[in-house]
Amino acid sequence: MSDMQEKLSDRILSILPGTNCNGLGGCGKATCRECAEAIAGGESIALCPACSQEQVDLIAEATGRDPVPVQKKVAFIACSGHATGIERHSICGSCEAAKAYGFVRGECKSGCLGIGDCVDVCTFDAMELADGVVSIDREKCTGCGACAHASTCIQNIIYMVPADATNFIPCSSTEEDEDVVRKTCGYGCISCGECERACPVGAVSIVNYHAVIDYDKCEGCEACAVKCRKKIIIDEYHDITKLKEKVAFVACNGGFIAGEIYESKGYHSCAEAVKSADPKDLGLCTTGCTGLGDCTKVCRYDAIHVEYGTAFVDVEKCVGCKDCTFACPKGLISIVPYKGAKMVPCSSVADYEEKSDVCPVCCESCMDCINNCPNGAIYLEDRHAVVDLDLCENCNICQYVCFKGVIAERAVPEYNYLQRDALGIGKESE
Q1: For residues 274 and 253, which has the higher predicted lDDT (pLDDT)?
Q2: Which of 147, 198, 264, 387 lies at 20 to 30 Å from 410 by C-alpha?
Q3: What contacts 34, CB < 8 A, 6 or more positions away?
Q4: CA distance 217 to 399
Q5: By the 8 A CB rule, do 417 and 244 touch?
């Protein structure tokens, strides 16, 4: 190397971040010195991925070359970090050792191992490990790529994405069975393909049973986040808790406080109570809500609560991900259209006298709503009324004739019609 080149490489080295990624960075060099020498020798002035646009411009000035645009990237972990156990954390010193240790039943084998090898190699203090979950400070991340190196992340779930990206899919599951995914992780992709079909520019695809975003194509619209059945796609630009088509509905109006009664008998979960207790012996509805909150435990949006012994859904928070429907052992929770509509919160199959003894707000199957519905949208099923939401025109007649006031309306605030427009189901469809 000539004296001129050596001086140039020294100048370039003074511009580089200079923290040395130990051969793991995206430049492919062992040290910052080697990177600087490579640039001085003719390689790209943007060879170091950790350089900002300002630094690259300075290198261009120092080398006498034309400036080049830099697309700043940051690291993203394609996993929420909630599906691996913590028992290995205290006994395994590396992610490689943790993977060799093995997985217990019910864990995700594709997710973050939670040991923090990536944290150890980050020389910019942009990664943190807490309670087995790794987080990235995007403001500190320079995009050097050390954490994403194959020798760092043995699970290969860390990717470099554009710093201005707004949509993210925190899952790398390779599990094919949807039920297994739901039981394993609330943030797990079920590879339903709705996001892939919804993307207007073909930027989303299903790879090894999980959705992946091609950021060279992604335009940052809300289509994938809105259509995602599990509502796991992170959209930092739009509020996906409001951009929704459907929400959960609990087909039970309450009655006596079942949860307290079950708890007094030593039951602590709905599944346990349904499996072991006889509601009739306890003077409870055989089909009603157990009230012990199995559904609340799986809700990531704090959208379902047990009040007076019955689960109720906060439609403003609910995103329609269906996790609660899988958690309810009685199958009382369904996903219904998010719009003003009539609902019958009762699933009792008992005769009138029996259901009235255990619930003051039950459907008496009197048929008044059915006989008066002008659209034929209500029918009787197993001794309780059911509304066909495809036929219901929200005319209010059923509510008017229901002398017990059982039929409820799901009112949608006016501003939400703008959100429905974004989904292509504008206000005129009412």
Answers
A1: 274
A2: 198
A3: none
A4: 49
A5: no
Cα–Cα distance, 178 to 191 (Å, whole number): 8
Write the CB contacts of 57 (distance below 8 Å, at least 6 apart in sequence). Answer: 67
Using 50, 70 and 90 to split pLDDT, how confident is the model at 103?
confident
Which run of H or E residues covers position 38?
helix 32-40
Residue 313, SS3? Answer: strand
Residue 17 has pLDDT above 70, yes or no: yes
Q: What is the pLDDT of residues 201-226, one digit of tens each?
A: 999 999 999 999 999 999 888 889 88
* Tens-place pLDDT, residues 324-339: 999 999 999 999 887 7
Q: 227 near 208, Cβ under 8 Å?
A: no
Q: Are 40 and 5 in contact (CB under 8 A)?
A: yes
- Mean pLDDT of the 351-366 span: 84
Q: Is 181 helix (H, G, I), strand (E, B) or coil?
A: helix
Q: Where are the alpha helices (DSSP H) in 244-348?
A: 258-264, 270-276, 294-298, 323-327
Q: Tell me which H or E stretch contains 211.
A: strand 210-213
Q: How many residues does the chain have?
A: 430
Assigned token pair, 77? 């972990």
Report the chain's mean pLDDT, rounded to a whole number. 87
Neighbours of 425 (CB within 10 A): 16
Segment 184-198 shows an average pLDDT of: 92
Q: What is the pTM of this model?
A: 0.73
Q: Answer yes or no: is pLDDT of 180 > 80.
A: yes
Measured CA distances, 224 to 47, 168, 227, 308, 372 (Å): 33, 10, 5, 37, 41
**Number of C-beta neighbours around residue 192 at 10 A:** 15
- Contact yes or no for 11/64 (Cβ under 8 A): no
The amino acid that residue 114 corresponds to is: G
In 287-346, at which residue ranges do the beta strands (DSSP E only) sit?
304-307, 310-313, 333-337, 341-343
Domains of the chain in sequence order: 3-63 (1.10.15.40), 73-235 (3.30.70.20), 246-429 (3.30.70.20)
Residue 413 is which amino acid? P
Beta strands 234-235 and 167-168, pairing class: antiparallel
